[in-house]
Amino acid sequence: MKKRPIDFRLLFGLVIAHFLLFFSFQDKTIFWYIFSASLLLLITYAMFQEEVDDEASFFTYLSFGAMSGLFLYIILWLGYHAIGILHLPFINSISRLYRWFAPSVFWQYLALVLVAAPGEELFWRGFIQKRLLTYYGPLKSILIASVLYASVYIYSGSFIFVLASFISGIIWGCIYFWKKSMPMVIVSHLVFDIMIFIILPLK
């Protein structure tokens, strides 16, 4: 059996991501300052490692991206209401997450749209998942990348946040592998964030 070489660029990127997200969640009062800066650093690192894929037309990535973002929101909306119907304790966790980490002032909403959504996709799908594809098959790469994406949110202290990140990571990972379009997954992520934080928050 051929031994795979250690991908130090991948490992270093993961270490940086965990380090930055750990500090982002330490102080709720300055979360958006640290989180935004952290994602800008991750964008910079990712852009130096991999080229950005864009194999879909403008209309395709805009329409399919918007539809997939709405689809993901509906999945989480249904899950949220199922938690409420079943009277599971996670409902309080979701309310607490909104209270602590949801954007509340104009510049934070700008950071959500211009930094957070593009940054997460460029790093986790455009860099992490893309590099994993050089070592593993599509399914395994998407699953591993989704687990790694969810793992940095353990610092939020919320199991439901980690689970939602894992589910969304799988959906965005599948879209990225299928369409090879970074703009498409960014649009999907943007639509999802706008729905869940601005238009129809789960609270």
Topology of helices and strands:
Blueprint: H1 8-24, H2 31-49, H3 58-85, H4 90-101, H5 106-132, H6 138-151, H7 159-179, H8 182-199
InterPro entries: Rce1/LyrA-like_dom
GO molecular function: peptidase activity
Protein name: Membrane protease YdiL (CAAX protease family)
Rg over alpha carbons: 17 Å
Could you give the count of β-strands? 0
Shape verdict: globular
What low-confidence regions span 5 or more consecutive residues with pLDDT below 50? none
Give the helices and strands as they follow along the chain.
Answer: HHHHHHHH
The pLDDT mean sits at: 92
Distance between the termini: 52 Å
Decide which structural class fits the backbone.
mainly alpha
Total discrete domains: 1
Number of separate helices: 8
The major sheet is characterized as: none
Determine the strand fraction and express it as a percent band. under 5%
Question: Which bin fits the share of residues in helices?
Answer: over 70%
Protein model, in words:
With 203 residues, this protein is mainly alpha-helical. The chain has one domain (8-199). Helices cover 77% and strands 0% of the residues. The protein contains eight helices and no strands. It has helices at residues 8-24, 31-49, 58-85, 90-101, 106-132, 138-151, 159-179, 182-199. It is globular, with a radius of gyration of 17 Å.
